[in-house]
């Protein structure tokens, strides 16, 4: 039975090696479709991370706001506690599927975030292959007669009549889950949960 961790990150740039996480939010979905209350964290980037002003402009976050966020080390400790409450990282059969929109982007940033904090256990919580709603969207529209002008989450959500405040990690992952529920039947998947 699959368990899913739906997650979105906001970052200080596009390179997981040189940039870092400043916001992450998500929720847990059991194989029965039960949805957890979720989490929503902001944090300062890791001290080694660079900050691209263009990324902050997109996220709508200022340097002043970042300076008031909790330290990255405190937030990752809270995130690891959540992950550990959901799966046993020492049990090879007890893993979650990381789910989101362009999930490999988030997965790379999260794994690197763990490594930057001297924690090598990120992949102990997850199956290696994520569930990527963006990949599903691309397949879905490939066979449709009509499609949006691009595959950005904001554009796709608008196509399906889903309104949300973009570039907020929690709003983004909720919108992603709603898009998933819209297209899941096309793939023979019956959506179980709702948010």
The strands making up the biggest β-sheet line up spatially as 3-2-1-4-5
Number of domains: 1
Euclidean distance between termini CA atoms: 20 Å
Main β-sheet: number of strands, strand sense, barrel status?
Answer: 5 strands, mixed
Structural class: alpha/beta
Number of strands: 5
CATH topology: Nucleotidyltransferase, domain 5
* Highest CATH level, the class: Alpha Beta
What is the H/E order?
EEEHHHEHEHHH
How would you describe this structure in keywords?
single chain; 195 residues; alpha/beta; Nucleotidyltransferase, domain 5; five-stranded mixed sheet; 7 helices; 5 strands; 38% helix; 14% strand; globular
3D architecture notes:
The protein is an alpha/beta fold and 195 residues long. The protein has one domain (4-187): 2-Layer Sandwich (Nucleotidyltransferase, domain 5). 38% of the residues lie in helices and 14% in strands. The protein contains seven helices and five strands; from the N terminus they run βββαααβαβααα. It has helices spanning 53-59, 63-68, 72-86, 103-116, 133-142, 153-159, 169-183, and strands at 4-11, 21-29, 39-42, 97-100, 131-132. A five-stranded mixed beta sheet has the order 3-2-1-4-5, with helices on both faces. Strand 4, helix 4 (103-116) and strand 5 form a beta-alpha-beta unit. Helix 5 (133-142) packs across helix 7 (169-183). 33% of the residues are buried. The mean pLDDT is 94.
